[in-house]
Design goal:
- The chain is an alpha/beta fold.
- It has one domain: Glycosidases (TIM Barrel, Alpha-Beta Barrel), CATH 3.20.20.
- About 40% of the residues lie in helices and about 20% in strands.
- It is built from 14 helices and 15 strands.
Length: about 400
Amino acid sequence: MTHTSTSFPDGFLWGASTAAHQIEGNNVNSDWWRKEHDPAAGIAEPSLDACDSYHRWEQDMDLLASLGFTDYRFSVEWARIEPVRGTFSRAEIAHYRRMVEGALARGLRPMVTLHHFTVPQWFEDLGGWTADGATDLFARYVEQCAPIIGEGVAHVCTINEPNMIAVMAGLAKSGEKGFPPAGLPTPDEETTHAIIAAHHAAMKAVRAINPDIKAGWTIANQVYQALPGADDVTVAYRHPREDVFIEAARGDDWIGVQSYTRTKIGADGPVPAPENAERTLTQWEYYPRAVGHALRHTAEIIGRDMPLIVTENGIATADDNRRADYYAGALDEVAAGIEDGLNIQGYLAWSALDNYEWGSFKPTFGLIAVDPETFERTAKPSAVWLGGLGRTRELPRTSA
């Protein structure tokens, strides 16, 4: 076995990602907060204080910067900024601006996500993304974020994983409980069109705030792999769940690639991983090569000139050695993509912290452990290793 390295391209983003609802705590005006406290929703546990990062964001940034990371992706919470329709909180806007300035002061380039799964309760009550005027309401919120992102923010993500938003809407409309054994539910077509329209309106609003901002959105890549004879089935299955959202990014400044595992497709549709496959705490197949497949497929759909940023990639595990092994395998794939001429401009791990994973704190994705009682942060060995790569500016390679 030989060990080589690939140098980062100039300006390469090297960081970790979080989402407001998953780390801030007490996001009481969001749709998810209401859902967490509704017995009928069947949520295992509520977010409550989460990681208390609303108050401890400086600690989080200090730790990431000290580890060697150069970039931090975090989201702003629409339900805090506009808790009541048409009422915008100057204090919350100032809070998120302080986070931007705090990141810059620590040498962390902020990537700001404007929507990461949660919406204000009033927006959900209107009917959500498919309600009359929803696109304009989202664009107005983006415009109100001008003081946050207008200066010093080079990258903005409009909407995180829109394909999953459409999938969840389809699941809600079908009345089904939970996901199938493999693959994803059918996305809601109306929500697909609505979320794409909202993204395009948000792109226009961001560019009006500052045309120098590089804006795009991030896609949940499922790495659909066709079994023999199932190529056409795979294309038909993948298109509404993934490719239509990649295609909607044409004209954007970049596209975010987010992958964790793979989904095999047979003649009759998705095929579960074998019983003896290694699985993570989310019960996904352990498959570090996923990110390489996702990068190549995204480039195939949207063109090799489009800048690609890995905005999420990681593993839920209690074994930090397996976490480090997963990242090593994933980075081999990133390095191979760079060597093959893909326009890969960054890699941000999911996630910076052990956080609230949409119903439970048990799936630990974090590079940094968080004590649920004291909120003390402790960097795991994988964080020290991964952050250190940001200092060397070299991507490790392992080949047989």
